[in-house]
Design brief:
- The chain has one domain: 3-Layer(aba) Sandwich (Rossmann fold), CATH 3.40.50.
- It is of the alpha/beta class.
- Helix 1 crosses helix 6 and helix 2 packs across helix 3.
- It is built from 6 helices and 5 strands.
- Strand 2, helix 2 and strand 3 form a beta-alpha-beta unit.
- The chain has a 5-stranded parallel beta sheet with strand order 2-3-1-4-5, with helices on both faces.
- Helix content is 47%, strand content 16%.
- The radius of gyration is 16 Å and the shape is globular.
Length: 169
């Protein structure tokens, strides 16, 4: 394989992005498909938030250069807004990857229950509100070519299989 490939998994908080990325990793690992997984939130998780400096993109450039040096050509990247930043993420990789993206969706009830399992109090209320706002933005602004995959009543492994079916890996 000469060119790189980028899979972006986006969606609101609580939709299952990280869980699906991990399940996709396991599926590909078991099939012997070389790949790397990067959780976008970890690239600029700091306080005060360094978003205005595009630190996540700078860090992705550095991380991908290391993977690339070791022969990796496939990247799975999960982050809420990754579906809106697919071209910028591809640019950060620096090697013009082929992009596949999916927007994960779920009902408010399902997302609220998932968030309640990991957050509480004021943090839960803030996450629920941000998640709902992100869902509206993502639905409106994600590219029309990008498939929407519902995660309600589906396991991460089932959703990962759906994503894998979109790939020619």
């Amino acid at each position: 394989m000469d060119g790189s490939e980028l899979v972006v998994i986006g969606g609101r908080s609580g939709v299952g992005k990280s869980s699906v990325a991990h399940a996709l990793h396991a599926l590909l690992r078991d099939a012997g498909v070389q790949h790397a997984v990067v959780e976008g939130d970890a690239l600029d998780l700091a306080w005060p938030a360094p978003w205005e400096h595009r630190l996540s993109m700078r860090n992705l450039t550095a991380i991908w250069a290391n993977y690339r040096e070791l022969g990796y050509r496939r990247l799975i990247y999960s982050n809420t807004v990754s579906v809106l930043e697919a071209d910028e993420l591809a640019g950060a990789m620096g090697d013009s990857p082929r992009i596949t993206g999916v927007l994960l969706t779920a009902s408010d009830e399902v997302v609220d229950a998932r968030l309640a399992a990991r957050e509480s109090g004021e943090e839960l209320a803030a996450h629920v509100e941000r998640s709902a706002r992100a869902a509206r933005r993502l639905q409106a602004d994600a590219p029309s070519w990008m498939p929407r995959i519902a995660t309600d009543e589906r396991t991460p492994a089932e959703v990962a299989r759906t994503v894998a079916d979109l790939l020619a890996w």
